[in-house]
Amino acid sequence: MKFLFSKFVVFTFISFTIILFSNIQFFNITIFSQEDDKKGFGVQERERARIHADNDSKVDDKKGFGVQERERARIHAENDSQIFNNDFAGLIILVTIIVIVAVSSYALYKILIIRRKSNHSKPKK
Amino acid sequence: MIKKIFRNYILVPTSISLLLLIQYAYGGNHNRSLQDNAELLGWLSISCGLIANIPFILYVRVKRLSVKKLGGADSLTRNLSLEHRPIINFHVILNLIGFFTGIFHGILLIRGIDFISISLVIVITTLTVSGMLMRFAKLRILNQLNRIIHTHIILTILLVILVILHLSISQ
């Protein structure tokens, strides 16, 4: 297993590095070059994107990007902001954290009980 | 040399398949090919999870049933026990590949992040870390603790629900 695991780590590391480096160009285009202040993903940014797309599709098509793409972006942003506004989606992260904390504390409690039982069963000197 | 390569029958095909994904990174339309690549990584992660976990769960159930019904001395139970190590290696390696491809998929699509994706990341990371600690930690207490966390049914149910929600939202 040790042998297999080290090989696995090397292979995946190389694969991911190559994929990552070949994608840097796209990172430049899609993520880093958009003059974004990156403060707060969330609802605010999506709302801003929606307003921008809305205004753009009304004003200009800039030959190439075009109305279609802007319209698609607007629909995406609108759907996303709806997802964010949905209480259920907000609650799910809370539920996840509660479940993980609960399971971890349950595990700790069980371990504590096992240890206490094993201490009791030890013969006293 | 060739023998060594063939010995790593799991590593080589999976690593090559990951390397083959690079071709999706090249294309005329940048945004489109990036989107395709990221989505493909997501599907790859889900496929790895399904292949690694469903047979493993079935194996564990069958083994438990055979111990209960046939007893430890039966040849079927003993054969199943002998298969334990290779099956668990397969489970660990494929799940790790699924985890890393999932993380990479998340990095590529970080701008579209939502609460469900964050929850999914938390659950998957918890399960992976507990699994790795369970497999490699030498302290017995740590091993037991991670076994309880890793094999808890609630976390599995939560993972399945979150994957379904993630898929339904991203469609």
Account of the 3D structure:
The complex is a heterodimer of chains A (125) and B (171). Chain A has 125 residues and is mainly α. Chain A has helices spanning 2-30, 42-59, 66-85, 87-121. Chain A is elongated and about 80 Å long. The two termini of chain A are 42 Å apart. Chain B is mainly alpha-helical. Chain B has one domain (2-47, 89-170). Chain B is elongated. The termini of chain B are far apart. The chains are: A mainly alpha (125), B mainly alpha (171).
Oligomer class: heterodimer
Low-confidence stretches of chain A: 24-40
The proportion of residues in beta strands of chain B is: under 5%
Radius of gyration of chain A: 26 Å
The span between the termini of chain A is 42 Å
If helices are DSSP runs of H or I spanning 4 or more residues, what is the number of helices of chain B? 8
Total DSSP E strands of chain A: 0
Alpha carbon gap, first and last residue of chain B: 45 Å
Which sheet architecture does the biggest sheet of chain B show? none
- The low-pLDDT segments of chain B are none
CA radius of gyration of chain B is 19 Å
What is the molecular shape of chain A?
Answer: elongated
Q: How many domains of chain B, as an integer?
A: 1
Binned strand content of chain A: under 5%
Helix content of chain B: over 70%
Mean pLDDT over the full residue set of chain B: 79
- Percent helix among the residues of chain A? over 70%
Main interface: chain pair and counts: A-B, 44 and 50 residues
